[in-house]
Amino acid sequence: MHPVILFDGVCNFCDASVQFILNRDPNETFHFASLQSEAGQELLKKYSVRDDVDSMILIENDKVYYKLAAALRISRHLRGAWKLLYLFMIVPAPIRNIVYDLIARNRYKWFGQKESCMLPPPNVRKRFL
């Protein structure tokens, strides 16, 4: 099973992050589901994700990763020097997540939001659940 990235489908920053990953994932490692979608809701239930979690979530090998742990694990699979970001895993999670939490709390205010989730382009649609 491919790792699945759950993301906030109405968040402009989250949408840009998904586009960033798509453009740097030549092996098509990741599949995607918005938190608002039926597939996303089913995965949240299956993995017992708390209702108050609305950040990026990575499900990989039947384990759930949140916040910067998810982003850094994703970076390991991306083309180019992005793999090096995984080295930040040595930083304790509470410290790593300070900046992540600040951006997550303010993402709608700083980057805006959409009325609905994006419709993926045909060439990547198969990677969206």
TrEMBL record:
- The superkingdom of the source organism is Bacteria
- Stored InterPro entries: DCC1-like, DCC_oxidoreductase
Molecular-function GO terms, alphabetical: protein-disulfide reductase activity
For this entry, the protein name equals: YuxK protein
